[in-house]
Design goal:
- InterPro entries: FKBP2/11, PPIase_dom_sf, PPIase_FKBP_dom.
- It is a single chain.
- With 144 residues, the protein is of the alpha+beta class.
- Helices cover 29% and strands 28% of the residues.
- The chain contains five helices and six strands.
Amino acid sequence: MRNIFLSFSFLASAAVGVLASEDLKIDVTLPIECDRKTQKGDVINVHYKGTLKSNGQKFDSSYDRGVPFSFKLGAGMVIKGWDEGLLDMCIGEKRTLTIGPSYGYGQRAVGPIPAGSTLVFETELIGIEGVPKSADTSEEHKEL
């Protein structure tokens, strides 16, 4: 009986892992090496462009405003896909986050975003408050 229970537990945890990967996909489009990566509690500055996966329609962009978006990472100030998708990131790094509804806005419509939408964000980490850009990236270490 114990083996059957362990088998069911294993299958349940494997199924959760599959769901999690459908909720958040992280593609690093410009990798950067650094000593100090983003972590929960950091106030970060991010440029982004958000589009709907279904049709590619842009719904928001900090680039259009010319000002990066700042928030405290891991504090629930943004959608779960951002709080998790921007962890362990280096200044200057770019990522594309594909965020399913459960890590985005769920089954509610928000402005131009229909309920149940999968979102695609092209992101660029501009800075981590309190961490100097020049001291963070490996590019400086390469010049030494």
